[in-house]
Specification:
It is a single chain. The protein is α+β, with helices and mostly antiparallel strands. The protein is about 10% helix and about 25% strand. It is globular and about 30 Å long. The N terminus is likely disordered.
Length: about 150
């Protein structure tokens, strides 16, 4: 897979999860991209003009809720948060883009694929917390303290 995608829009036009598309992508060399209200400021005209790589696989793994032992399969292209919400699990969340931290969960085992802008690289490397609204998984199973 792979490939590049270029987008350009003003903040007022942004009604879809553009940040979710941008996170982890390839940025335009020599400048930071801008997303309204976020720290990635281009600064000249408040537009987003990223050149990004197609995101890595989000699904195809199992999430285990440690407190109940219940397992949920997260299919390709789906988020952990959406699968758990669809199953009736009551979870705090807000932005669904990995920028607010409301859906943060403690990781007991497994290696999450971090796609948020909350955790620093050092925090992500510990693999002890994950934003379930946008994370994938690098292992077959991810056990959460839920």
């Amino acid at each position: 897979m792979g490939g590049l995608l270029g987008l350009s829009m003003t903040c007022s036009e942004s009604r879809f999860p553009l940040y979710g598309i941008m996170r982890g992508g390839l940025r335009t060399p020599g400048r930071a991209d801008y997303l309204c209200g976020e720290r990635h400021a281009r600064g000249d005209d408040d537009t987003v003009d990223p050149v990004i790589e197609t995101p890595a696989k989000m699904g195809g793994f199992t999430v285990v809720l440690a407190r109940s032992g219940v397992e949920y399969f997260i299919p390709e292209g789906e988020t952990i948060l959406n699968v758990l919400l669809d199953a009736g699990i009551d979870i705090d969340y807000s932005c669904e883009l990995g920028i607010c931290g409301a859906c943060e969960q403690r990781v007991i085992s497994g290696i999450p694929e971090h796609r948020d802008s909350i955790l620093s690289e050092e925090e992500q490397a510990t693999n002890t917390r994950v934003m379930i609204c946008c994370a994938g998984c690098k292992t077959d199973r991810l056990v959460l303290d839920l």
